[in-house]
Amino acid sequence: MFGIKYIKAQPNTYFLQYKKGKIIREGTGISFFYFAPVSSLVSIPMASMDLSFIFNEVTSDFQDLCIQGDVTYRISEPRKLAQLLNFSLTPDTKSYMSEDPEKLSKKIINQIQVLTRSLIQLLPLKKALQASEELVDSVNKGLVQSDIIRQLGVEILSVSILSIRPNPETSKALEADAREKLLLAADEAIYHRRNASVEQERAIRENELNTEIAVENKKCRIREAKIDADRAVQEKRLLMKQDDIKSKITLEEKNQELVCLCVKNRKKEADAQAYGLDAVMKVCRQMDPEMIQALANIRMDPAQLIASAFQNLAKNAEKIGNLNIAPELLSELITPRTAQNG
């Protein structure tokens, strides 16, 4: 109504609204009303897009190759692209006003073809057929460094080479060459297998002989080891006996030293005791015998004292006239001794 319209962008679509040559509104997934007679709408898809390519190139040895692959890209700077290509929508906003959106894919494919040609022309046919990984790396690096891709505001996500094929005639020639090489390799394999079997048989026989020789050598070493072991045991026994004899000799020598030392100690003890007795005897010779007798009687029991008294009486018997000893006194003197002996 009255030229006022409403538009709603998808989340992965970047919209720009121009009015009088100036951008008055832009963004991803926006929605707004606009006055159609004075507004221009630009719609740039931001989602990743897959693009297939196929083209023919010539190798360094002048052989045709058919290269097929895919490239995945996305528009990372929509304002740059809007300045170079026309992504304006028709008044009904259902299609583009120009064919520039289709030119974008052609520009990318042309850039990939230029980069592919620069590498394929340097390689011979056989190497080119096996250079898919090298070709992918070269194209990726070239697209990242490409000024055209950078100016368009496009980001290359991935490049893949699906096939590298020669023309049918060349392919048959390569197949024939490969077939002959395979047959030759098969013949060589048969020859090597037969030769290997003969070598293995000879090696087996040599191994058997070497095994027998090794077994005999081992047996000889075992016998020598047993002899050496017996000899070592005998030597150890002899050493043990010698050590035992030495220890016994040492023990006897120690015993002899101990006996000599004991004899010396006992002699010294006897000399000391003799010296002590001699000193006591010297003192006793100078003392009065009665004093000595009195000292000896100090620790005697009554019976011994009475016996000593009778002894003194016996010595002085000529001085005693009459002495009467009652039987009761003798029984009293004898009874304690008999009880003590009992």
From TrEMBL:
InterPro entries: Band_7, Band_7/SPFH_dom_sf. It is a single-pass membrane protein. GO terms for cellular component: membrane. This is Putative band 7 protein. It is found in: Membrane. Pfam families: Band_7. Its main location: membrane. Signal peptide: none annotated. Residues 215-242 form a coiled coil. Residues 8-187 form the Band domain. Keywords: Coiled coil.
